[in-house]
Amino acid sequence: MALVSDGLPEGKAAAANALCTLSCNHDGRSASIASASGIEALVALVRNGLPKGKVAAAKALGNLSFNHDGRKASIASAGGIEALVALVRDGSPDGKVAAAKALCNLSFHQDGRSASIAVAGGIVALVALVRDGSPDGKAVAAKALGNLSRNHDGRSASIASAGGIEALVALVRDGSPKGKAAAAWALGNLALDHAERSASISLAGGIEALEALVRGGSPEGKAAAASALRNLSSNNAGGARRSRRLSASRP
After folding, report:
1. What confidence tier does 5 reach under pLDDT thresholds 50, 70, 90?
2. Of 58, 150, 163, 217, which residue has the fewest beta carbons closer than 10 angstroms?
3. Residue 134: inside a domain
4. 123 touches 145 (CB < 8 A)
């Protein structure tokens, strides 16, 4: 841990890589890293390291945060949310992906941390990654936006204001299978019980893109698209007509 905190830049990056490996799918080693002040050291490296050190540290924080609320809280308390949002916004392509994955973990079913991500500028950064990132970056950013929009009208409105609807519709249309499924899920959250956002999704071509995904997507994509269409149909007359037509056309 001392090397991550006090080593030379190349040594810090190598040590963060080792911590990333040690923390992957192992709660005991992850707990030991956290107990040894590893979270604080990794957050500092995300903030001030070499590009490859930032990537390794963000990956390690993603591992440490997976399915563990205590370590998620420690990452947030150490300033990790702000550091990760900055990396999504300004990092290398690999850094953006790693940071978005960590933010996705941190935002999962947690309103307080989701609010902190939004306050730190995370929504704008994640929408930009959905629009302009690598295929993996687009997929994980869309999943994070789905977490942020889940059952929260204010953050959903912010995603729409940042151009998120158009970016997500484009990803449903042209993304990787994982990206399409994540974007469809996020659009379903944005549409839930909100006629105005449902209309915006329709105007952006979302109904056609979701219908195409129901017909030809992966099993996960088909399920997410069908759910989104159901949410749209409850708010939007055009969506309802299209959804009924699609259902009628199925064997």
Report:
1. confident
2. 163
3. no
4. yes
- Of the candidates 186, 185, 141, the residue with the CA atom closest to the CA atom of residue 160: 186
Q: What is the CATH number of the domain that holds 45?
A: 1.25.10.10
Tell me the C-alpha to C-alpha distance, in Å, between residue 135 and each of 62, 175, 222, 246.
19, 7, 19, 28
| Structural domain boundaries, residue 52 | 1-120
CB 22, CB 59: distance < 8 Å: no
Name the token pair of 202.
Answer: 């329709």
Among 120, 137, 172, the domain-final residue is 120
CB-based contacts of 205: which residues, under 8 Å, 6+ apart? 169, 173
CA distances from residue 75 to 12, 39, 41, 83, 103 in whole angstroms, order as listed: 18, 6, 10, 10, 10
> In 3D, which of 34, 17, 22 has the Cα closest to residue 68?
34
Residue range 94-108, pLDDT digits in tens: 999 999 999 999 999
CB 126 within 8 A of CB 118: no
Instruction: Assess contact for 229 and 246: CB atoms under 8 A.
Output: yes
Q: Could you read off the pLDDT of 176-233 as tens digits, one per residue?
A: 999 999 999 999 999 998 999 999 999 999 999 999 999 999 999 999 999 999 999 9
Q: Is 212 within the bounds of a domain?
A: yes
Cα–Cα distance, 94 to 91 (Å, whole number): 8
pTM for the model: 0.90
Domain match, 163 and 105 both: no
pLDDT score, position 98: 98
- What's the pLDDT tens digit per position in 48-71? 999 999 999 999 999 999 878 899
State the residue for tokens 């902190």. 116
Residue type for position 86: A
